[in-house]
Design goal:
Blueprint lengths: L4 E2 L2 H7 L1 H8 L7 E3 L6 E3 L5 E7 L4 E7 L6 E4 L2 H15 L17 E2 L6 E10 L2 E10 L15 H7 L3 E2 L14 E5 L2 E7 L8 E10 L3 H10 L1 E7 L10 H13 L3 E7 L4
The chain binds zinc ion (ZN).
The site of zinc ion (ZN) has 7 residues, from strand 5.
Length: about 270
């Protein structure tokens, strides 16, 4: 019986027609799997399933996701992330319990850069209008100047506002959805924040996890429930490293009150 598998052209180009056809014929695809995005069980015979090919520096791993969580695609990762994926996929097919995730804590600072900017990215749950939402807080470590100019000044928030982010004065309502942008959850972790590609092409990474940005089960559950992640961006020096979620919230409230916060709701990539 044909599986409800989706193999994108991009994935097909990497694995070759022969392997793609064997997958579609059900010869090599697993019936059940743990979704690489939301980490809950899926069944390729019962529901639409995406093939997701993770490519590291030297090796590649094919994984599966609910089509509602992630479209079939190729995801570039580091070898280290890839080893994590192999472990999890091997564990699943052996019927073993999923490998224990390192306790994430919400101090998942990651240093990666659009251009030369260095951004701190932190995940946390934020309560808005009585509901918990998965949030990302992005703060540069130095002032960001407009490309082609030299300081002084900090154009980080104006640049994001030009892209459609909205200034936030208090965290009382959800920010509007920013179409064309998305958050890519893969291997149960936040992999990238994508922005519209130049000239309306394929989305490109605005921020790419340099090391896995671990998120908690609660964060992942909130992201999957709402099918979106709230991204808050603050100007340099306004949030800092906050060891607890209540302190992160205080810092966000303060940055908002001081006019140093912008936000948008980013759909999960593929939704
Ligand atoms: Zn899923």
């Amino acid at each position: 019986m044909p599986r409800m598998l989706d193999v994108s052209d991009e994935v097909r180009a990497e694995i070759g027609d022969e392997e793609a056809d064997r997958l579609l014929a059900g010869e090599t695809a697993p019936g059940s799997y743990d979704c690489t995005s939301c980490r809950t069980p899926g069944d390729a015979e019962q529901e639409r399933t995406s093939t997701v090919l993770f490519i590291g520096d030297e090796t590649a791993v094919l994984a599966f996701a609910h089509a509602t969580c992630l479209p079939s695609q190729v995801v570039q990762v580091t070898e280290e992330q890839l080893r994590g994926a192999v472990k999890s996929i091997t564990g699943d097919s052996a019927g073993a319990p999923a490998p224990q995730q390192p306790e994430p804590g919400r101090d998942g600072h990651d240093l990666a850069a659009p251009g030369q900017a260095v951004l701190g990215v932190t995940s946390g749950l934020v309560l808005i209008a009585g509901e918990l939402h998965a949030a990302l807080v992005v703060e540069p470590t130095t002032p960001i100047v407009r490309p082609g100019t030299t300081g002084p000044g900090d154009d980080f928030l104006p640049l994001l506002i030009e892209q459609g982010y909205m200034p936030v004065t208090e965290l009382s309502a959800l920010p509007p959805v920013l179409h064309g942008w998305s958050a890519l959850l893969a291997m149960g972790q936040l992999h990238a924040v994508l922005q519209p590609g130049p000239g309306g092409g394929q989305p490109v990474a605005w921020w790419q996890a340099h090391q896995p940005l671990l998120v908690t089960d609660g964060w992942r559950a909130a992201a999957n429930k709402h099918q979106q992640v709230l991204m808050f961006a603050a100007s340099v020096g306004s949030i800092g490293r906050q060891p607890r979620e209540d302190l992160l919230r205080d810092a966000l409230d303060k940055a908002a009150a001081n006019g140093r916060l912008v936000a948008a709701a980013l759909p999960l990539s593929g939704t």
